[in-house]
Design a protein that fits this description.
Elements: H1 5-25, H2 30-34, H3 44-63, H4 73-76, H5 92-112, H6 115-119, E1 121-125, E2 131-135, H7 136-160
Antiparallel strand pairs: 1-2
Helix pairs in contact: 1-5, 1-7, 3-5, 3-7
């Protein structure tokens, strides 16, 4: 297995789970999706917006890296988020369209990464302006783990609203060894 293979699996899992979440959320009314349910970002819509905001922040940071950023230039051209709780889209259909597009960008970019790319140091500033230098492979682990964390919250919110998402385990995407 190459160093990039687990990240390609995580990118596929990300897309698969986002599709499942948006399909499940789409069975609810706009009011139910926007209802404050006491989560970190309030509602189902707030949590899904946070995921898009965080993904956009990280992808823009990755896009700014000279040797790995070229495939992410369409993301780099997007406006910078103004806060982690920003509502990028106030309707599920609009957010869903953006989510599909982001997931396509993630899949394409991760597929382009080499072992050398994954070992390089990424220089960036966090949302408080503090400079950091971390290995890309470690940042990608954080990137995908953050998505999983908030998707877990979203599945709980959906379950509380009476909507079951179904299988959510990464294991469902891991092929059988032959």
């Amino acid at each position: 297995m190459t160093l990039s293979a687990p990240f390609q699996l995580l990118a596929s899992y990300n897309q698969w789970m986002n599709q499942k979440l948006y399909e499940a959320a789409g069975t609810l009314s706009a009011e139910a999706i926007a209802e404050d349910r006491g989560a970190f970002f309030g509602s189902i819509l707030g949590t899904l917006n946070h995921l898009a905001v965080a993904d956009r922040l990280w992808l823009k940071r990755f896009a700014a890296q000279p040797t790995i950023g070229a495939p992410l230039q369409a993301v780099a051209a997007l406006p910078d988020p103004v806060g982690l709780d920003q509502t990028l889209f106030d309707s599920l259909p609009a957010l869903s369209e953006h989510r599909r597009w982001l997931d396509e960008q993630i899949l394409r970019w991760v597929a382009s990464l080499s072992k050398t790319d994954l070992e390089q140091t990424v220089h960036y500033h966090n949302t408080q302006g503090i400079a950091h230098q971390k290995r890309l492979s470690s940042l990608l682990l954080h990137f995908f783990n953050h998505q999983t964390h908030h998707r877990g919250q979203t599945t709980t919110l959906l379950s509380q609203a009476g909507v079951e998402v179904g299988v959510t385990d990464l294991l469902a995407l891991i092929p059988e060894a032959v």
